[in-house]
Structures are given as C-alpha cells and as structure tokens.
Protein 1
Amino acid sequence: MVSPSLRTTADPLPPVRHVLVVGGGGRENALAWALARCPDTEKVLVAPGNGGTAGLPGCTVLAIGEQDHQRLLAACQEEAIDLVVIGPEAPLAAGLADHLRAHGIAVFGPGGDGAQLEASKQWAKALMVEAGIPTAGHWSVSSLEEALAVLEEQQQPLVVKADGLAAGKGVTVPDTVEDCRRAIEEMFSGRFGDAGSAVVLEERTSGPEVSVFALSDGERLVLLPTAQDHKRIGEGDVGPNTGGMGAYAPAPLLDADGLADVRRTILEPTLAALQGRGINYRGVIYAGLMLTPKGPSVIEFNCRFGDPECETLMPLLGPELAQVLLACALGRLDQAPELSIANRCSACVIVAAAGYPGEIRRGDPISVTLEANAEQQLFHAGTRLDTDGQCLSSGGRVLAMVAQGDDFDQAFARAYGGLEHVHFEGMTYRRDIGHQVRRS
C-alpha cells in the first residue's frame, strides 16, 4: 500500500473554472463533455478538437495541434487555465506535461518518464518483472534474425508487439507458427516506423480481458469502474485488431474483491515501482488485464484513458470529476472530494468508416437527427467541419454512440436505437457489442 505523505497545509483545493483538454478524438470529446458538466467549470477549451467539439455545451475549439508545446503553453497563460487534461499518448510521451508543469500549469497526465509505461513495451515489461507484477513471459528483440531465432526455439505462436506507440494497432495474436513468422517479418519491414524497430514477443495466455483504470497523484490511487473493450473489427470477435469497436461498463468480470486484489497485486506495486525510479506519476494508470486460470495478468499498461472505454465511463462519473483530476495534478488526492459513481450500466458502440482498419473513406457528410437527452450521448471522434459548417467524416473511428440504462439490455437497446438517427455513407459498426452481458 502506498502511504500518503503528511501535509502541513489544510488549504482547500482551488476551483476549476477554466479547463484545457488536449486532443481531438472521441476520448477527448467525452472528457470535455464530462468536465463541462462540473459545477464550477465556466469554460472548456479543446485543442485541436474535432467536428463535434463546438456542439458540446460549454466547450470551445482551440485550433492548436496537440504537439505544439509553445502555443499550448501560451493559450494556458492567456486563458488563465486552471487544469490541463492531456488525452492522447503521443503528446504525453513527447513531454507536453513536463513542459507545462515547468511553467506552473496544473496538468493531469504523466510526464515523459512515466509515459514510458505505454510508449515502450520493453520498458514496461522490465518494470513489471522488477516489481513482481503478474504478466506473460516475454522476449525483447531488436532485429528480425533475433526474433526468428526465438520463434524457432519456442516452436509455438507468440504474441508480436511493436515496442513503441502504434495507435492501438501494433499487436498481432497469430494462431500458427507460420502466421507468427509473417507478423514478425511485417513488424520489422517498417510498417509501424520507429515503433516497430524493437519488438516484444510474448507467450500466449488465455482468458477474458478487462480494463482497469486508476487515477494517481503520484502517491495515492482512486479506482474507476471496470470496463471491457472489443478490439476486433468483426462480429464474434474476429478479424484484425482495431483501436476499439465498442465497450461497456462496469464489467462484471471483476467483483469488489477481485478489484481489491488487482489494486493490491498490480496497481499499488506499479505505482511503487514508478516511485522507485523517481517518477512522480500524476495521471491515469490503465491496466489491460487478462483473467487467466492463475489470476489477473497484465497484457499492457497505457498512460491515458482508453478509447472507447473513456466514452463509456464518463457518463457514470459524478460532478466531482474536475476537482479529483485537479487533486491528482497537484499531488493532493487526499484532499479531493469523493468521486461519485452512478449505479447504472453504460454501453458504447463505435461507428467506423468503410474500410477501417485498413484504407478508409473520408469526407462523407454526417447526418444526425438524435434529440439531446440524459440517457444518450453521441461523441465525435474522426470528424471535421468544412468551410460551410457541414460535419464530415475524417478518420477511421468516426463516432461513439453511448447510452445508459438500469441494465445492459436497456443500455445497449438505447445505444443501438440512437444509431438509427445517425447516417453517413459507408458507416459500419458491430451489432454484437456487449454480447458477454446482453440477454437479448
């Protein structure tokens, strides 16, 4: 257990009136929506945002790229930003949080050192081994010859992972040794650029997967509801991996005792190991777990909210969210209000462009006739506005239809019902999201 340090001040946390969310995907759309609902929040700026950002109450687009450190800093100073929330992994790995913190800005998101938890699978694996955190056996390799030698020795299909950031697509789970050989050769062929210049090969493990999210202030943790993502493009969980085709929360795979066990055996040792390396980790620790016959095992860590899990979770979180994230950013989680969690089920279905996750269509007009209501949210991901204000598709994952209900059947009925009011040419989505928990 990571113990809180003694504090010499009882000063209350300052209010969070002006927020900057960095990023332009569905995750950032959902974060901005949730933070704008917090009682003290007066405005939420989103940089660079997307085609749906301006349509969120209380939110404004800031036309600054997520990697433009100097302009983002200037915007924080000009807009008197109280809290920056960095959504994507790339600016975190590039040290955006470090740059802003060096100028006195409160940032929710780890520095470049902590972001290695996601930015380098080799680094993360070494940390897990050092801390005794359960994870699959692995081999770190830096050449095609080295990788093929491991495969030849093992004579069984291994999971093939690009070491660096690959937009959620740098993992192959082959079924045969020959498929594994092809995946290794493709990885070292340059498909993922520098991200694939080093590779982690892993033993295959089996069991259901679940996502666990912890908010950290560097010393303490607050756990959010669990979620389950659907990575494969096809119904029945077949086909290539994607960034995520849907999710639901809370995932019943882990009960309260199971979640407490994950906290004790995985999350707290991870935070302690980060501290042992001199890393003050203030942000999300996202553990992707496989529930094996021997217990929970870490598939991978991410240093930010998952997408689409974030879209699924945000409607369940209470109005204290902004204060809790600020407390993490300031290292004062012990002074934060308790984050309330709605006792409801949340469902998310991703709408993708034709061809995703391969060559995709772009530029199709999007029509939405869904009326605003408390039970459904349509978050934008890969969208943009043209010069006439028309919303167009611009990415692989275009929209996230999210809904809540008293049970999963009701939540998914509302999510799929909402999609009847959304249209663009070639839109595609899985109709079996949440099959693990739906009765109909």
Protein 2
Amino acid sequence: MALAVAFLLGGLIGLERQYRQRMAGLRTNVLVAIGAAAFAAIGMRLLGAEGGTRIISYVVSGIGFLGAGVIMKDGGAVRGLNTAATLWCSAAVGALAGAGLAVEAAILTAFVLAGNTLLRPVVNYINRKPIEQTSEAEYRLHAVCDPEAVADVRDLMVQELENLNYPVSEIETLSDNDDVVELAAILVPTTADPKELDHVVVALERHAAIHSATWTVGTLG
C-alpha cells in the first residue's frame, strides 16, 4: 500500500516536471518517491518507529547527493536548484508514505505542485519588473525547441530581435537532452520594451518546433 501511494503521488509531481521538460521528470520522481517509501517501510517493519526514523535520516542525506547531480554551474548562474529541491520533496513524500502517513504525503504533494505551478506567474512577474538601478540590465530571450531545429530557431530568434533593433550579444544553450533544447539569446545591454519582447515571444511560439518561449531581465552588476 505504501509503495502504491508513493508511486501515485510521486507520479503527480513527476508529471508536472515532465510536462515542463525538466531534467528530472516522471520516472525520476516516481523512483525517488517509491525508493524512499521502501526504505522507510523496511525500517518501520524491522525496528518500528525508531527504525523508520533512523532510515529516513539516511534517506534525507542520501537524496542530497542525488540532487547535487542535477545542479549545474553555467558561468555566474547556477541551474537545476528547483529540480534538486523537487527531488528532495519527492523523497519526503515517499518517506511519509512509507511511514504510513498517506494523508500527510498527499498534502505535501499538493504543496509541491502549488510551488512549481502557482508560484511560476509570480516569479515571472518579478523577473520582468524594470530594474531601477544604476547597473545595466541584461535581457534574455528563452526558447525551448526540438533538438533537430536548434540551428533554425537560433536564426529565428536573432531575426525577430533584430527586426525590433535589439542586437544579440550571444546565444547560449542552457539545457540539452534527447527531447528538447533550451536556448537563451542574450541582448546587448540596453533598455528593452516589455511589450515588444512579449510580441517576440508570441511570434516564436507560433512555430511548431518551439515548445515554449519567454524572456527575463537581470543585472550585469
């Protein structure tokens, strides 16, 4: 029963991650959840609550190594933190299920899904707020596309931006796997119009090879 609960709840978390084409998707989150549930259940069965607590403490430290494997440093940016945190939460869901706390596991799953979905518009809104500082703003146009269409999408991003007189400094590959590739076109430091960038996003998303597009703004220091 514990494994079934962990499988179901881990699957819900994994489905959201898979839909957004993250590195740790459906299978990874399910395996983390049922693995944590199995270890917790073994401890509970052999040594009772004390054994379960002891095993879960090892799961907490062990999942840290797994999470570290998905965190990558790209220049001055660190990527994969949200994926690692989600895996950590999937392990917690599994541990709760393995300890017989199915209701608590379901509640935690709901909070994880809310954190990864409901907070996304808030994060995007904050990231797009104009930066009222003396430092220069760095605008990035992101696009997630099919691997075989990378070259065409690169050209398309440059073309759409240059049509609005926004020169591109460089285009980075943020993530690359068998299913999708995420590209980021970095604009030459300038003041950009959010409405114009929104129009570029809409134009990019019309193309079948592009799964999603967005833009962000940060500071150069």
